[in-house]
Structures are given as C-alpha cells and as structure tokens.
C-alpha cells in the first residue's frame, strides 16, 4: 500500500472516530485560465470534471447541496474503506433525511482551481454521482444556460 493510500486511510479513520480537527481551506488558482466549461444534460443539470486526491470524477454541480458529497462506491476509487466510517451525521436532502459520514478531501481540483483540506460527506444510502455542493461553489461564479454551464473564479 502506498504512503498516500495509508495517509488517506488514517485521515478517514481519524474523522470517523472524531479525532481530526476541522481543517483549513485554502483556495488557489493559476494565472492561466480561470474558468471551466461544463456540460448540461436534457434537464439542465451541470456536470464538471474534477480531480479528488488525484482521482478523476465527473461531478454534478448541485446548488441544493451544502456539501461536497460521495457515496461508498466513490470511496473505493479513492482507496478508502467505507466500513471504517461512522455514519452519524443526519443530512436533509430533497429525498428525505439520510445518514452521512464526514471525511476530508486533501485536494479538490477543478480546472486550475484548487482547494485543500475540504470537508466532505459520504452518504450511506448512496447518491448516484458525486455532488459539488455550495461549500465549494461559493468560491466561484456559476452560470447555467441552454448551451452549457461555466464555473469562473
């Protein structure tokens, strides 16, 4: 097991046990392109490509969600075990109240925009796609139209 994977496992275990202090969030962007064009589906839902701790994901930009959110299957892609998490947080969604477990994402990269030590949630019931919620969107400007969507920072 690589050092990165071991470190991720330790952080997830610490979060699950309540032994991890609230992280700091720092945003960075390069001097280059400060925007990312996403794709909209037939319902005008906006999807963007992001990298979470080096792993690529297509994420739903969800202004109705407070959090960066994943399901247990997404954790496998990140090399984390869902069995070690404590699903103790009640999260209110449009589909009702669900149980979630807090985790910390060390690096979230959307184009040249980077956030470090981002709090995220793992939904026990298993949302279908990772959600890019308001905890991240608030650092950007979002436009959605019939021709596509765009995040700028």
CATH topology: Cathepsin D, subunit A, domain 1
What would you report as the Rg, rounded to the nearest angstrom?
A: 15 Å
**N-to-C series of helices and strands:** HEEEEEHEEEEHEE
Number of domains: 1
Q: Report the portion of residues in β strands.
A: over 45%
What kind of assembly state do the chains in view correspond to?
single chain
Largest sheet: 11 strands, mixed
CATH class: Mainly Beta
Helix content: 10-25%
Which stretches are poorly predicted, pLDDT < 50 over at least 5 residues? 1-31
List the helices and strands and how they pair.
Layout: H1 3-17, E1 26-28, E2 35-40, E3 46-52, E4 55-61, E5 68-71, H2 72-78, E6 89-93, E7 96-110, E8 113-123, E9 131-132, H3 134-137, E10 141-145, E11 148-152
Parallel strand pairs: 4-9, 5-8
Antiparallel strand pairs: 1-8, 2-3, 2-11, 3-4, 3-7, 6-7, 7-8, 10-11
What does this 3D model show about the protein?
- This protein is an alpha+beta fold.
- The protein has a single domain, classed as Acid Proteases (Cathepsin D, subunit A, domain 1, Beta Barrel), CATH 2.40.70.
- Helices cover 17% and strands 46% of the residues.
- The chain is built from three helices and eleven strands, in the order αβββββαββββαββ.
- It has helices at residues 3-17, 72-78, 134-137, and strands spanning 26-28, 35-40, 46-52, 55-61, 68-71, 89-93, 96-110, 113-123, 131-132, 141-145, 148-152.
- Strands 1, 2, 3, 4, 5, 6, 7, 8, 9, 10 and 11 form an eleven-stranded mixed β-sheet that branches.
- The longest helix is centred in the first third of the chain and has 15 residues, at 3-17.
- The protein is globular.
- The chain starts with a helix and ends with a strand.
- The model is unreliable at 1-31 (pLDDT under 50).
């Amino acid at each position: 097991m690589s050092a990165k994977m071991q470190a991720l496992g330790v952080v997830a275990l610490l979060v699950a046990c309540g032994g991890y202090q609230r992280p700091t969030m720092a945003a960075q962007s390069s001097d280059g392109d400060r925007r990312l064009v996403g794709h909209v589906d037939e319902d005008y839902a906006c999807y963007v490509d992001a990298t979470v701790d080096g792993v690529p994901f297509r994420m739903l930009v969800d202004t109705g969600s407070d959090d960066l959110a994943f399901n247990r299957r997404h954790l496998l892609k990140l090399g984390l075990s869902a069995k070690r998490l404590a699903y103790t947080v009640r999260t209110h969604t449009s589909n009702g109240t669900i149980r979630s477990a807090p985790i910390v994402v060390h690096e979230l990269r959307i184009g040249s925009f980077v956030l470090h030590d981002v709090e995220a949630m793992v939904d026990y019931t298993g949302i279908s796609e990772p959600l890019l919620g308001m905890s991240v969107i608030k650092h950007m400007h979002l436009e959605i139209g019939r021709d596509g969507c765009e995040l700028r920072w």
